[in-house]
Every structure is written in structure tokens, then in C-alpha cells.
């Protein structure tokens, strides 16, 4: 009893002098609920909340950050999902996460330049990289003691990209983070959502393992991987009010329709209907319609599809007074040197090339970086 009293008095005296012998709060952390209003979610999240579609993720603006942990629930892809992480607009680096507590390194392993607590605010951006195995189920976020969330100031520019494997980053080591839509969005300092599904047609037909086409799935929360899950084997309508309204819409699709023998007339009709429906969401935004860059061949010219249809699609919009739809002619953008020989999809260098060409096209059109 006497010893306890002595220790209590010493603690009181030490505290009065600003140096407690025992700081009960020394190891405390800050836990952020997944419903916190200052978490900036982007892309498609279901109610769990969990991600669908490549590029979906979150942004955090944090005061006095020195440690960050994502606490993920049971709907997270097993054994892991790969996410891209950027701190203060650094290049993205890959982190593998799984169900449970995941400490997120605040710098790339190859350049550990984030040491200790950083005064001021730190911007952390996290997104899922894969078009499959891309689900992270956020339960909460743990920050270091003294850290607090600040409002995130979103960009004045926002891209909505819509496509298939040629936009999703299929076969790339870091998935969508190395794909031309992601690179283009980053170049312009824009927010970006990328709804692109490998193997999918625009037509709502089965194709290469996809049970629906993009003309259906784009309007759902889930990507077509839902069909193969056991915990979420259904789709739900996406509430577009949850999106940052895009300032620019880019569509590059049709390769799989051609592979599934959709006729020129059929493709024209489904594309025209799709644009009509998009206009109910994005009534005035410029829409950029990509022509195919084709399938490069080792000993001959690229093979193309729907060559005359894409100009007709744009003309049809112009004919009804919608002149804010633009044809992006990508002929010659991709050669055999720009693709993986085994699957004829753009390589990492190929995606960089495509992004650079589109960025130049947009600059000539009048778009400026922010």
C-alpha cells in the first residue's frame, strides 16, 4: 500500500513537470470508421463496403501522419489483393493486402524516404490494381496517435473510362495502374474511374467468361466477376450520384464484339443505344469514341474491326444535334513492337506510348493539365 502511494505521488509530480514516468496514452492509435465522411471513396464500392472493378479505391488527406493500417474484412479477395499506393503524388507502388490488419508502407520499398511523423498534411491514394482478384472490404483505418483526417480537395478534372482488356491493364505487372487510361488521368491531374472488363463485349451477351456485356454491367456496382463469387453472387444497380461527375468520358470497346461475330449493324445499334443511355447521366460532357488500333501482326498490317462503324456512330450523334461526341482515330498508334507477342495486348511500354499519343491528342483538342 505504501509503495503504491509513493508511485502515485511520483507520477503526479512528474506529470506536473511535463514528463510522466508512465504515459498511458503512449501507444494509443486513431481508429477511423469506414463511414467517416472524410474518406474519399472513388470507383465502385458495395455496401459492405467492398471494391469492384479495377481502379476503385480511396484517398485520405491526413494531418501528422506516420503510420497507416487498413483493417479489411472477410469479403477481401483471398489469399490477397494487390493495391497501388501513392503518397503525396509519388509514383504508385504495389502492396499486397488480405483480410485482417495490413500495415501500408508510406514509401516504396525501393525508395524509403518517408521516416517518422510528417508535420503538415499527407495525401495517400490507394486503388485496386486488378480486373479480377480485386476486392478489398474496408472495415476501418488505423492511424498513428495525433493523426487526423482532413478534407480531400478533388481535382477539377474527372475522367470516366469505359472499355475491355485493352483498357483494364490485363497482363501488366501492376494491372490498371500501368494502363493508358490510368496514365492519362494521372498526366492531367484528374480524378479517374475505369470501368473496363477483359473479354467483355459491349453487347449484352456472354463472352470469354463474362455473363454480361458492358452495356449492362457498366450500370451495376459489380464487375462481371460477381458470377464466380460465393459471397456476392448477384448484381446491384449503381447509384451514379456517388460518383464525382466526370468532365470527360472516353469509350474504347468493340474487340470482343467482333470476336463474337456481332454484325456491323448490331454493333452500331448497341453502341448508339449505349451512348443514348450515357447521355441521361452525362448530358453535356464531351465523349471520346476510340477507333480500334487493331491487332498487330508480326509480318503484316494490323487487322481491324468495325472500321466504318465508329465514324457512323459519331455521325449519328452529330445528326441529332449532339456535337460533343468526338472520334479519336487511333490508326497507327500500336505496332507489333508495342504488344506482348503471345496475346497481342499492349505491353507496359505500349500503354505508355498510347497514353502519350492520347495526351497529345487531348492537348491539341484543348484540354490542359491541372
Any overview of this molecule?
The protein is of the alpha+beta class. The protein folds into 2 domains: 29-150, Sandwich (Jelly Rolls), CATH 2.60.120; 158-365, SGNH hydrolase (Rossmann fold, 3-Layer(aba) Sandwich). It is 22% helix and 26% strand. The protein contains 8 helices and 17 strands. It has helices at 2-16, 165-168, 180-187, 214-217, 255-259, 264-281, 309-319, 348-365; strands spanning 29-33, 40-45, 51-63, 68-72, 81-87, 93-97, 100-103, 121-128, 138-144, 148-150, 158-163, 191-196, 248-252, 287-290, 295-297, 300-303, 325-328. Strands 2, 3, 5, 6, 8 and 10 form a 6-stranded antiparallel beta sheet that branches. Strands 12-11-13-14-17 form a 5-stranded parallel beta sheet, sandwiched between helices. β5 (81-87) and β6 (93-97) form a beta hairpin. α3 crosses α8 (348-365) and α6 (264-281) crosses α7 (309-319). The longest helix has 18 residues, at 264-281. InterPro entries: PCW_deacetylase/CE (IPR052762), SGNH_hydro (IPR013830), SGNH_hydro_sf (IPR036514). Keywords: Signal. This is SGNH hydrolase-type esterase domain-containing protein.
Amino acid at each position: 500500500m505504501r509503495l503504491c502511494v509513493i508511485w502515485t505521488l511520483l507520477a503526479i509530480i512528474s506529470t506536473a513537470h511535463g514528463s510522466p514516468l508512465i504515459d498511458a496514452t503512449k501507444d494509443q492509435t486513431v481508429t477511423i470508421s469506414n463511414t467517416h465522411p472524410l474518406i474519399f471513396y472513388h470507383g465502385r464500392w458495395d455496401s459492405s463496403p467492398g471494391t469492384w472493378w479495377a481502379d476503385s479505391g480511396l484517398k485520405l488527406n491526413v494531418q501528422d501522419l506516420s503510420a497507416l493500417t487498413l483493417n479489411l474484412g472477410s469479403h477481401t479477395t483471398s489469399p490477397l489483393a494487390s493495391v497501388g499506393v501513392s503518397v503525396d503524388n509519388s509514383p504508385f507502388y504495389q502492396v499486397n493486402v488480405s483480410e485482417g490488419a495490413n500495415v501500408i508502407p508510406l514509401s516504396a520499398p525501393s525508395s524509403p524516404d518517408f521516416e517518422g511523423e510528417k508535420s503538415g498534411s499527407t495525401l495517400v491514394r490507394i486503388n485496386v490494381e486488378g480486373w479480377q482478384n480485386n476486392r478489398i472490404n474496408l472495415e476501418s483505418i488505423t492511424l498513428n496517435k495525433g493523426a487526423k483526417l482532413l478534407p480531400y480537395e478533388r481535382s477539377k478534372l474527372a475522367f470516366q473510362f469505359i472499355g475491355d482488356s485493352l483498357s483494364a491493364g490485363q497482363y501488366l505487372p501492376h494491372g490498371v495502374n500501368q494502363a493508358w487510361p490510368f496514365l492519362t488521368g494521372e498526366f492531367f491531374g484528374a480524378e479517374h474511374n475505369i470501368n473496363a472488363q477483359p473479354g467483355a463485349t459491349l453487347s449484352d451477351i456472354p463472352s470469354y467468361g463474362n455473363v454480361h456485356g458492358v452495356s449492362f454491367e457498366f450500370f451495376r456496382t459489380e464487375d462481371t466477376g460477381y458470377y464466380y463469387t460465393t459471397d456476392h453472387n448477384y448484381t446491384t444497380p449503381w447509384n451514379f450520384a456517388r460518383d464525382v461527375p466526370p468532365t470527360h468520358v472516353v469509350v474504347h470497346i468493340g474487340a470482343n464484339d467482333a470476336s463474337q461475330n456481332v454484325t456491323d449493324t448490331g454493333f452500331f445499334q448497341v453502341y448508339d443505344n449505349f451512348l443514348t443511355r450515357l447521355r441521361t447521366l452525362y448530358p453535356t460532357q464531351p465523349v471520346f469514341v476510340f477507333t480500334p488500333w487493331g491487332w498487330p501482326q508480326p509480318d503484316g498490317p494490323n487487322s481491324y474491326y468495325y472500321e466504318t462503324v465508329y465514324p457512323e456512330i459519331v455521325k449519328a450523334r452529330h445528326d441529332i444535334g449532339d456535337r460533343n461526341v468526338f472520334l479519336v482515330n487511333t490508326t497507327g498508334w500500336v505496332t507489333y513492337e508495342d504488344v506482348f507477342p503471345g496475346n497481342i495486348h499492349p505491353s507496359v511500354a505500349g500503354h505508355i506510348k498510347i497514353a502519350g499519343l492520347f495526351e497529345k491528342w487531348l492537348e491539341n483538342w484543348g484540354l490542359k493539365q491541372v
